[in-house]
Amino acid sequence: MATSGKYRIAVIVAHADDEVLGCGGTLKRHTLAGDEVWTIVMADGETSRYADPSVADAKARIVRRQEAAKQASDILGVQHMHLHAFPDNRLDTKPLLDIVKAVERHIHEIQPHIIYTHHAGDVNVDHRLVHEAVITACRPGPGHPVEDLLFFETLSSTEWQPAHSAQPFLPNWFVDISSTLEHKLAALKHYDEEMRPWPHPRSYEGVEHLARWRGITVGCAAAEAFILGRRLRRN
């Protein structure tokens, strides 16, 4: 539990790299401000690529991705990370209650003021289920710690969902990351295996173009965009 900063922050994501793609610049702003940040990753991010996820190469890739996550966190100043091992792109094969209970345990331990997580309408099934699990775990009963609940966009998932197939991403909350965009891009370098050549949206150019576009829509050089799910101010 935090003892120094202003706020306790949890970013709860399906895969290691989603935290940087979705809100890496914002997380760096939090840590620079003295906030305490936890990254919670639910799925292993690799085993969907293998018919047999127990093969040595699959295990080696999981280890490499975990190391990449730790190195990216160091750049962003994130103090805490927990990596779960739910099966990649197969969260729909697990009872939703199991995912909810894992999220609830973290919320109970961290007592976060702010949670960042996925948008409900993403193409990726793991994103959608993590969103649903977080919403369920954040039921606003008396004494629940979460004050701000924010949903981010993830390139090559959010924008690939046709507008009439699911809830569109219509942001109403923006964070100026003009001073932290370079940290976001540097953190992504540790996930280089997950990046693609331009003009794929999950390219370094795509990430920067999106940040610049979100920035100019609100009058700054670069921004990350969110949907505010809930905001509560107790004082």
Tell me what you see in this structure:
The protein has one domain: Rossmann fold. It has a 7-stranded mixed β-sheet with strand order 3-2-1-4-5-7-6, sandwiched between helices. The mean pLDDT is 94. It contains 6 helices and 7 strands; from the N terminus they run βαβαβαβαββααβ. The chain starts with 7 loop residues before the first strand and ends with a strand. With 235 residues, it is α/β, with parallel strands linked by helices.
Strand order of the largest sheet: 3-2-1-4-5-7-6
Question: What helical percentage do the residues reach?
Answer: 25-40%
Tell me the span between the first and last alpha carbons: 21 Å
| Largest sheet entry | 7 strands, mixed
Strand content: 15-25%
Oligomer: single chain
Whole-number count of domains: 1
CATH fold-level label: Rossmann fold
Write a concise keyword list for the protein shown above.
6 helices, 235 residues, alpha/beta
